[in-house]
## 1
Amino acid sequence: MPIASNGFIFSKRAPHYQPTFALHKRIALLAEEVGIDYLFWMGKWKGLGGPTHHWEQALEPLTLVSAIAACTHRVKLFATINPLLFHPTVAAKMVATIDDVSNGRFGINIVTGNSLDEYEQMGVLPEDYTNFRYEYAEEWTTAIKALWSQDKVTFKGRFFNLVDCVSAPKPRQKPYPMIVSAGGSDEGLHFGARHSDYAFIGLRASEIAKVRQFAAEEARSVKIVTNLFLLIRDTDAEAEAEFARLRDELDHEALNNLIVSLEGNMRGSRRADYLRAPTVIGFGSGFTVMGSPETIARKLTALIVETGVDALQFSFLDFVQDLAFFRRGVAPMLKDMLRHEGISINLGEERATAA
Ligand SMILES: Cc1cc2nc3c(=O)[nH]c(=O)nc-3n(C[C@H](O)[C@H](O)[C@H](O)COP(=O)(O)O)c2cc1C
């Protein structure tokens, strides 16, 4: 969901818009009609500048999702939360509150923060954080799970100290609300394997095998989800031409600022240089899948069948217009093609929408 201004594509040609409750409500209601299973909001605390002022306006995900929860009735909702910003006792209640508002449809994406300048500006970034960020998240997650499931919690860790601490009511979902994670490093993948129901990873077979292996070592299983940017036009040629125009008018300044801010958090030889590849036009948008509705349906079917991925997350240039196009053009064909592969999905079915 486009929680920060201009969505996920860094281009002067992309639509420029503000994230508002009205827009998010409209997309959420449409998503319920389309048959989308869940909606996902990242967290963003500092914009990237450039001529497009990318991400300079960003709403706060949990408060926004609480409102969306009240006006939807079926779609699951995930909001990103960074343990650095919310004490686990506060977060435990916030999540239980939204789980109540949504009638058990809420989940969190626990992140350690990919752009540390977001936290530096607030004065909340501990020294040497990069070297213990997943240890911090691990403790926070252990504490919040205890608060969600036990009457009284006594917990002494390196970062948190709870003494006979109570948190009630408990969330509606038992033992706790859904957790997703999106770490890419081995530490991040281990964290996801230990705690999450869904792990966001790329589509390389080796990565998928790795996270499944890490989860098996924890005697758990984790569903794999990947995000994709769908660029749907009437024909393949039109989609390719649109991609070329978006790329030609890339907001290089905003993208460079992103690269610098990501590298502040990377250890050793890891670099964010991959964002300079000619195939990149956004961030958080996922791998681009473009073409006519039929091409998109075919590519998605192949991807699902070949990788065995459990869920696909889509982003769009214009969420309202393109999601409607997806529903009209792609969903019926995708459903048919998957049926031929013995896979059944609910996409494309008419569903009642809450007022
Ligand atoms: C779909 C998706 C959404 C993400 N959302 C956020 C976010 O909202 N805030 C954030 O700081 N990082 C976010 N990340 C970054 C990851 O949490 C993670 O930090 C990044 O993939 C690097 O992995 P590492 O932390 O293991 O080094 C997201 C990643 C993905 C794939």
## 2
Amino acid sequence: MATATGKAIFLKDYPAGMPEPSLFEERDIETPSPGAGEMLCRTVWMSVDPYMRGRMRPDIKSYIPAFSLDAPLEGGAVSQVVESNIDGFSPGDYVVDFTGGWKEYYLSKGERTQKVDPNLAPLSSYLGVLGMPGMTAWAGVTQIMKPKEGETMFVSGAAGAVGSVVCQLGKAKGARVIGSAGSKAKCEWLENEAGIDVALNYKDYKNAAELTKALAEAAPNGVDCYFENVGGMHLEAALNCIGFGGRIALCGMISQYNNQKPEPGPPNLVNLIGRGVMARGFIVSEYIDKAMEFAAEVAPLLMQGKIKFQESVYEGLNKAPEAFIGLFKGENFGKAVIRVGPDNL
Ligand SMILES: NC(=O)c1ccc[n+]([C@@H]2O[C@H](COP(=O)([O-])OP(=O)(O)OC[C@H]3O[C@@H](n4cnc5c(N)ncnc54)[C@H](OP(=O)(O)O)[C@@H]3O)[C@@H](O)[C@H]2O)c1
């Protein structure tokens, strides 16, 4: 049973620089009734993701529209169907869709909505390793970098939701994997649990020259593939170490998302030319038709324990702003997820 009103989080104004908690406001909104072709869903888990920062910049044209200040925020969620007027969806079903986050109840038309099995994997993992971040990792590895056995892969943001899956897919394909992350604990997890070859704590290096030196030592034969999550000195170091015929999957540049003025690009882009490097930007939705291939490869690796994952779990919708801001401060370990309500009512 749905309650007459539910909580939802609104953005009061667009942030300049690092978002502040005071920009977010929790309000009560009326629980809507589903009309024909609609269903009422109750959010169980919601995701916070770095791309949401881009939706807080109405001045920049993007692949996805900016958030409105007049409606609750939205984002990926695992939800339970409460009432359904859509064939194929029944009360009690669990679904993932891309609008259910930041609120307790919402209407879905069942478009881009995927049913998920709570017995196959923990519900929250459909927002991480088995969801959009896992699919992003899989696409960058299998469709762009295509690492061969014995090649060297470098991954920035390696302990995060996307990076940790990239690292482990790289290992599964026989690559030597070097990852960078922002704490000793994250680096230890990467080497001891995720099984990568070398983890570099980038906070130990003051600039691109120092990071380049450490990366060159870890990759004496050069880097064959680079998975870019961070930008800035990471990209510069990767371009210094990339080998002939290298491949770069440009997935994200989180170090730049809160910049108020664009930062100049790395001074060594010219290496792309002389070394015949292919650098390809991508958005995961481009590969949506390959979602079954992703699930067929990653779900068994997860079941066999060959892919491990970490989650930072926040309890309660009101914790979502803190979880979101934490993405840009390195406060989350693995996938940041928020438990909005109980698995079952
Ligand atoms: N192209 C696509 O379709 C697509 C899809 C999903 C995600 N992405 C991108 O992939 C990247 C990772 O996303 P995610 O979901 O996996 O996030 P995440 O890694 O789970 O969370 C963000 C992490 O980034 C690191 N970070 C934050 N600010 C940083 C900085 N200034 N310098 C270095 N590291 C910093 C922090 O870890 P540390 O403690 O290691 O600093 C933080 O935990 C992001 O750039 C995101 O935009 C792209």
## 3
Amino acid sequence: MMSGVILHQYPTSPYAEIIRLALGMKGLSWSRVEQSNIMPRPYLTPLTGGYRRIPVMQIGADIYCDTGLILREIDRRFPDPPLAAGNAGLGYALRGWGERAWFGVTVAVVFGRRADQVPADFIKDREELSGRPFDTAMMKAAAPMMRDQWRANAMMVEDQLAHGKPFLIGDAPGLADLSAFLNVWFLRSGSLEDFKVVTAGTPRLLEWAARMDAIGHGKPADMTPETAFNIARDASPESPRASSADEPQGLAPGMNVAVMPDDYGRNPVAGEIVFAGPHEIAIRRTAEGAGDVVVHFPRAGFLVMKT
Ligand SMILES: N[C@@H](CCC(=O)N[C@@H](CS)C(=O)NCC(=O)O)C(=O)O
């Protein structure tokens, strides 16, 4: 099914892999825009208004930031099959484990292994992203202990799969599988030798990983960044949805705000609220050369500041 989904990503991005697999679960046709793995991204930044992380999903003149919200939007537009039948709360909550706690360990193992090969421009870019030193020597020193931690997390997956079902929360793959699998995918592609060591005692995890691999990416077709930009220019944002009446900060349509992640890549994006709810805030802004766009952010993990 043609979805209108345009995914701004790069092949080695683990968070993008979550979305590629979610599109695969839905069996969608989508447009794949390859972005650089470091800044600048001249056709993307004008659309997001400064948000700098990958992936970003675009549908016409609507721009969706952060995996958490992109998953929700894919599920809203293409509900069948659901990404978390009956388990949406647990599924989104588990992102904190799979995509943060465990993923921090995975990054440490991969970059600890490759410490001597990380390009200087990549290190500089990630230091700007995080505001902290990207200390490959420290990652190298910590790698043995991080491998221990990786195995402990993998054993949680192994224990869960003792239920005998094919996926973490039942018979169909969903959000929990995506968040956990991110770690398998990144470690396996970043350091197969470490992956083999830390999965020596987790046979059920390996069988589950093969089932995740079999999902695929749906039907991607390549699109240039410039074409995606022109699509935003020629489209209008979708009509606003209802806002919640009980916004804790009193946020309401028409107010000016700046929105940014609360962890890293804290570049504020300024605009006027179109709608706000417990899981999403959408702001309208003018993208230079592309007219009005609406940029959507999740609420969990993001700061909304009145301006
Ligand atoms: N919480 C974000 C994390 C995204 C993230 O950290 N992505 C990495 C790439 S996988 C990134 O943006 N790195 C910096 C960059 O590519 O500019 C999400 O779920 O989308």
